[in-house]
Amino acid sequence: MNCIVCIKQVPDTAKVKLDPKTHRLQRAGVENIMNPFDEHALEAALALRDAHGGTVTVLTMGPPQAEDVLRESIARGADRAVLVTDRTFGGADTLATSYTLAGAIRHLGGADVILCGKQAIDGDTAQVGPQIAEMLDLPQVTSVNRLACENGHLTVTREHEDGYETLTVALPALLTVTKNLNTPRYPSLMGKMKARKAPIETLTAAELNLDAERIGIKGSPTRVRRVYTPEVRTQGIIWQDLTPETAARQLQDILGLGGRKDGAQA
Ligand SMILES: Cc1cc2nc3c(=O)[nH]c(=O)nc-3n(C[C@H](O)[C@H](O)[C@H](O)COP(=O)(O)OP(=O)(O)OC[C@H]3O[C@@H](n4cnc5c(N)ncnc54)[C@H](O)[C@@H]3O)c2cc1C
Which end of the chain has the smaller Cβ count within 10 Å, N or C? Predict the structure, then answer.
């Protein structure tokens, strides 16, 4: 059972704030982490390999420092790590990202199961997994929270807003997973030592033979028009222990209706 897991390095959004003046993310000094959903995708792949044999390859598209999440994946037990990196990938939206990752998966010879997180905690679109599946013409199941493999097919349960759905899916297939699927293992000491020296393979746009019109900013039809934080509403006023008449008069005053001389009732 060969698995490829798509891992995204994301800023720890719990620590990222928007600059109220520039409306840009204040990333300085913010730690980058493995997208939390991807930890569960990796754990699912490791469990499939442990039960059925095969290999787990982790794949990320990002700048050179994205190597960190690949090393962390090796420390947790991944067999092979591939970094897809090139200046021409800069500014990619989800369509260009999916096209690039699909090209890398094709280049690696595909896999029995491709796993993604349900969503990334920074972009939050949940588009990349489904788009990769479409581009590779693979069956896909999203929001998987239970997974079993028998006789060459997967039985998966997916979460809905109001219930669950259990499906069987033939391989090869792409799954996106929720945090309810499993409990990710911690990196072992041996794993950490191995990860420090493990080779990280890199793939560039030229090596992937990608269409230059479909990668990076050129291949990205999405444009961010504005990023903003919602206005903070002031807390409401709570009046207690007032008679209904007094409360009504105070409300009239606040609404600017206190001085009406026409006899109209507020
Ligand atoms: C106009 C525009 C410009 C942008 N420019 C940049 C930029 O210059 N630099 C930048 O970092 N981001 C940029 N982004 C954001 C970037 O496009 C998204 O972060 C990325 O496409 C993934 O989308 P998402 O975060 O919503 O992922 P989701 O679809 O929510 O992620 C779902 C899953 O897909 C997989 N996945 C997603 N992204 C990757 C990845 N890179 N590698 C491996 N697996 C992945 C993971 O398994 C993840 O759990 C830009 C976005 C737009 C719209």
Answer: C
- 3-class DSSP state for residue 193? helix
Residue type, 30: V
Atom 41 of ligand 1, nearest CA residue: 61
Contact 213, 219 (CB under 8 A): yes
The answer to whether residues 229 and 20 touch, using CB atoms and an 8 Å cutoff, is yes
Q: Are 29 and 140 in contact (CB under 8 A)?
A: no
Express each pLDDT in 173-212 by its tens digit.
Answer: 999 999 999 999 999 999 999 999 999 999 999 999 999 9
Measured CA to CA, the distance from residue 159 to residue 128 in angstroms comes to 18
Amino acid at residue number 248:
A
In this structure, the residues whose C-beta lies within 6 A of any atom of ligand 1 are 6-8, 35, 37-38, 41, 60-62, 90-94, 97, 101, 116-117, 119-120, 122-129, 220, 222-224
